[in-house]
Amino acid sequence: MNTLSRLATAFAAGAAAMYFLDPTAGRRRRALVRDRGVAARHDLGDYARATGKRATDHLHGVAAEARAYMDDHPVSDQQLHDQIRTRLGRLVENPGDVSVHVQDGHVVLMGSASTSEIETLATSVAAMRGVDDVDVRLSEATATH
Hints:
Elements: H1 3-21, H2 26-70, H3 77-91, E1 98-103, E2 106-113, H4 115-126, E3 133-140
Parallel strand pairs: 2-3
Antiparallel strand pairs: 1-2
């Protein structure tokens, strides 16, 4: 280490000692540093717990999807209808504008949606377990801005 770096290190150590050992405000400064350290440790713990919970939830979801995919029990029309309605909320901006009718695995989608949503919705519904075919009777929605 060269002389200039040693001098700078010694100066910084001296300044820190004066700052924290000051008879007037040093006690408060040390308490603030301690409190910030404790808060940072708590924040890190909260972050680690939340990240672990998200990972666990994701694994549970993947396992449930795998079980459902491997399940060979037939899906009832009501179950299929409910699953499609649930998926609509993620795929279409206005899910209330789309009606779903299911009969013996035949799905009819009616109402309105944007052009990109229609394509995505049709592909997604057709890939669902229990769907034999999809009849898309959706019209293109007009922008209302």
